[in-house]
Design goal:
Elements lengths: L1 H9 L9 H17 L5 H19 L18 H28 L26 H13 L16 H15 L1 E3 L10 H16 L3 E5 L6 E5 L10
Antiparallel strand pairs: 1-3, 2-3
Helix pairs in contact: 2-3, 6-7
Length: about 240
């Protein structure tokens, strides 16, 4: 549901008037990218994919002609999905509001007397500032789509591990301090190498070794190395 809502918002589509053929194609395309990464969560997306295909099939069926005095009980097959999306969007927005309140609450301390010997300031550092994992997946899919298919001239060299790729990315960012997300992938010419590099980026973000920023909605994503305390800012 979260992926579907993301696709609707990114393409500025009205929830009540979903172009089901278009959004189904985009969803399946996204699902294909997830399958390439061999993630364990693929199964979670298959039910929604089947639902979209079912709605698409219903809308492709020929419409029956009814007389003016006959009542058509069949409603738009997209409506049930639209209602679920609206409810999910409300829950998601409420969740984000609660998270914001939690961050603010962590910054408030009361004093009943004595010293603050055990006081620990909770950091509100977010390695994906203004971003979501969907944005990273979108950027990676763009990189995959730009990969040119070329005949293999010789036996390809064995691809390096994710850990080795992580070290290479850290070395790059140690020198450059920051770089565009797509720049990290430029020297790789195989799909496997791109996938390994993307998983390395995700692991570096998860372990708070690099941050990812986006200055504008759906704009270029920038990677930056973290400071010793796990934070990093653009300069």
């Amino acid at each position: 549901m979260d992926l579907l809502l993301h696709l609707l918002e990114k393409n500025e589509i009205d929830i009540y008037n979903i172009p089901i053929a278009l959004i189904t194609d985009k969803y399946l395309d996204y699902l294909h990218t997830i399958q390439l990464l061999n993630l364990d969560v693929v199964g979670d997306f298959l039910v929604m994919a089947a639902t979209l295909m079912q709605i698409k099939a219903k809308m492709l069926l020929p419409q029956l002609n009814f007389a003016e005095d006959e009542v058509l009980d069949e409603e738009d097959p997209r409506l049930e999905l639209a209602y679920k999306l609206i409810e999910y969007k409300k829950i998601k927005e409420a969740s984000l509001n609660l998270q914001a309140l939690e961050v603010q609450q962590f910054k408030i301390y009361t004093r009943s007397g004595g010293e603050f010997a055990d006081l620990k300031v909770v950091s509100d550092h977010d390695p994906l500032k203004n971003l979501s994992i969907r944005d990273l997946m979108d950027a990676f899919k763009t990189v995959l789509d730009s990969l040119e298919t070329k005949p293999i001239a010789a036996v390809p060299k064995a691809d390096v591990s994710i850990r080795q790729r992580m070290a290479e990315i850290l070395d790059l960012l140690t020198v450059e301090k920051k770089t565009l997300f797509k720049t990290v992938f430029q020297r790789f010419k195989t799909k496997l190498a791109l996938i390994t590099c993307f998983l390395a980026v995700l692991e570096l973000i998860r372990s708070h070794k690099i941050n990812a920023f986006q200055d504008a909605l759906f704009g270029e994503i920038t990677l930056i190395i973290c400071d010793n305390d796990g934070t990093g800012e653009l300069h």
